Write the structure tokens for this entry.
Amino acid sequence: MLTESDLTAIGLTVKLAALVTFILLLIGLPLAWWLARTQSRWQAPVSALVAMPLVLPPTVLGFYLLVGLGPNSPLGQALEAIGIGPLPFTFAGLVVASVLYSLPFVVQPLQAAMQTLDERALEVAATLGAGPLDRFMTVVLPLCWRGLLTAAVLGFAHTLGEFGVVLMIGGNIEGETRVIAVQIYDHVEALNYGQAHRLSAVMLVFSFIVLVLMYSLNRGAKR
Amino acid sequence: MSQLEFDLQLSRPGFHLSAQAGIDGGGITALFGPSGSGKTTLLRCLAGLEPAQGTITVNGQPWLSPQQQRPPHQRRLGYVFQEASLLPHLSVQGNLDYARKRAPQPLTNDELSALLPVLQVEHLLDKHAAQLSGGERQRIALLRALLTRPQLLLLDEPLAALDNRRRQAILPMLERLPELFTGPVLYVSHSVDEVTRLAQQVILIDEGQSQPPQPLTQAFGHHQTLLPFEQSLDQPLGTAVRATVSQISDDGLAQITGDGFSLWMEQQEAQPGQRLQLRLLARDISLSLQPLSDSSLLNQLAATIEHVRPYNASQQCLTLRLHHRDDSPAQAILALITQRSCQQLQLQPGKRVWAQIKASAVQRF
């Protein structure tokens, strides 16, 4: 059976993933919309920045965040001055790191869906009196719902599974930063293979079910 | 000041649009010209979908001026696009509600019940956009545009994507559009027949340059205005005429009367008193020096040759001035006559002739 500290880790991880997904959608929707439509020369550099976590080792991202948000850095000191922080080794720090780490998994499906959006539908809505925000809410979002669903699922699932970034900036504090992946690592380190098996199986099955649901919905919508 | 006034310029690589006009409501103004002439671009500039320089004033309010450019959603206009443009994620009713919710004042039930029977859409309201035929979609798109209570209605070749049968079904509805909407209507088309049937006046546009609005019968009746377009239009030369159905005979013919002419045509659902706009094709008109007494031709009109110009290697284009009963000049029509006939009959300006046209050639198309 799962131990109490396993359950704590699961609760913490789900809370983290849900919060991060919510924040990612808030940031990702306007960012993806801008990336999908802008003619600006900043489009390529911004796209590259967003995609960095796809290629960087998580430890690199974690290391820079640790240094950048730490009490000795200007950013860390500025955050502390307005009452935020110190972020390293806290749940809030974990949220910040996870948002950055999972950003491409949310932005890219959204951007892909928005790029295939029929321009005509937006023009129609404009001639019917819908302003930019109105059009975004009543035309863009409903027509991009598959991309939105994919983005949310990938953002959530990817945050569930992160390890390297967490270890660098979050450490391993029960109830605060010890997520499932770290908990499994602890079990293995302590040679508790049985516990590690159970927790790993939970992750495996959950991830599989979520992805199957997502792909089925996408398939159904295409028919 | 007119209800709609504009003076627009738009420059793109290889294309320059320059268009000016003042238009009042009470009928359809056709924007007519060959493909690539800038008709649709002009319409999009008026809607704000395309950035242009210049001024647009609608009912005294500036939509575009050097100081400001109103975005499309702040211009009170209705726009019907060429191809199906219903919002695909909404039902028909959802599309209509989308417009109604954003109208400054929703249409009253009386106004709505005036629209629905004309457009014949009641049975479509519960369907989904994807279930409709092309013609049904355009009718819903037109109704949706009217539901926003627009001050200006812009129609961009709304029938171009439809087959002829569906086009024939919608044309009578568009003929009644001025009853339903009193503001200016701009109707983009490259179809002479459509414009003839629907338009009160015509703005000719070619290579991005517009001409001032002129009455339909002038735009589509004078040899100088239409001939330059002929090559690119690939439609037969003809004259637009306006007429009223004066009587229906019991042998299936209708008599129509217009400016200096009275013609028999096949009834084609015409009703007494109905006003028609139709085209007399220049190739359907033949000439004789004396009225024909033993001919099957039902329609003979007295006319004077006003102008003769070469049309192609074998034919001349003649402008014929018709006469009222008191012999005062009425409108002119065009006729294509072979060079040979012109020589044999010595057809020259000033000569009195009789113009003949078969009843079956008088068609609404």
Remarks:
- The interface with chain B takes residues 118, 120-121, 123-131, 134-135, 138-139, 142-143 of chain A (CB under 8 Å).
